[in-house]
Amino acid sequence: MTGGAMIDEWYPVGLFSQLSEKGSNTYLMGEAIEVARDHNGNAQVVTGNGQTLPVRVRYGHVWSSLGNPDKELFAIPEADQPGRRFVDVGVIRVRCSPLRAVENFLDIAHFPFVHTDILGAEPHTEVENYKVEIRENEDEVWATQVKFYQPQAAKSATGGITTEYMYRVPAPTCSVLYKTCPPRPGEWDVITLFVQPLAEDLCDVWPWMALFDDDTPMTDLIHFQQMIFLQDRSILENQIPTLLPLDPGMEIPTRADLTSVAYRRWLKRHNYTYGAQLVAQ
């Protein structure tokens, strides 16, 4: 298995609410693992040869690692905020690099063309200037002051609005999106993408949300987010090359790709290379 420092990171491996003592079999970076509840009801993750892996339960998910994480799982303060609804969207398997899945989540320019009349619409296709930085203290990639016109920004939205976004990458296969909250203009809705790398070209995507929305049925919230990601899946599964290129000369970025450029630079800096293509072929 390759992947450099990524072996020591935390990854989602299942929904805690769906665990049973019988357990379920899955993969993490090519390694067969079993995720289950022990006799005390706690989550446990074991490899095929019986090795017990470290476990955390957070944001509705079970997290584990094949290595030895030197830091705790990243914090999402909104997960502890009273009044929010927490939405376990489920899992979607995608035949693509786990890094490609995150990069696509960071891409704003595709909204009008892939999520037509929902997250974007022609002729509102221009991506306005926004700010991107690698925050050294947190060691995270952030994009702020992102604004985009959306016909239906959320399930709770009743008409088109200009939505403001912030994007955050706290881990190589996870991204947190903060966006305008229609029912509460002073707050942010939180939509995350937790990606489980099954192999370098295959992943399970676990979206999760923390919303202020007291009216929409839970099933509708889940179906809305699944619909959005399923629209992305066909794009992801047809990208060439399959692995995410980290050499800046392999793909030509535009102004709309600033977050992607920073993300790739950050991955390369940390030797996060599982699912990446390092040189042109």
UniProtKB/TrEMBL annotation:
Record protein name field: Vanillate O-demethylase oxygenase-like C-terminal catalytic domain-containing protein
GO MF, one annotated term: oxidoreductase activity
Keyword Oxidoreductase: yes
InterPro entries in alphabetical order: Cholesterol_7-desaturase, VanA_C_cat
Domain of life: Bacteria
SUPFAM superfamilies linked to this entry: Bet v1-like
Domain Vanillate O-demethylase oxygenase-like C-terminal catalytic residues, every copy: 94-269
Originating organism: Rhizobium miluonense
Key words, A-Z: Oxidoreductase
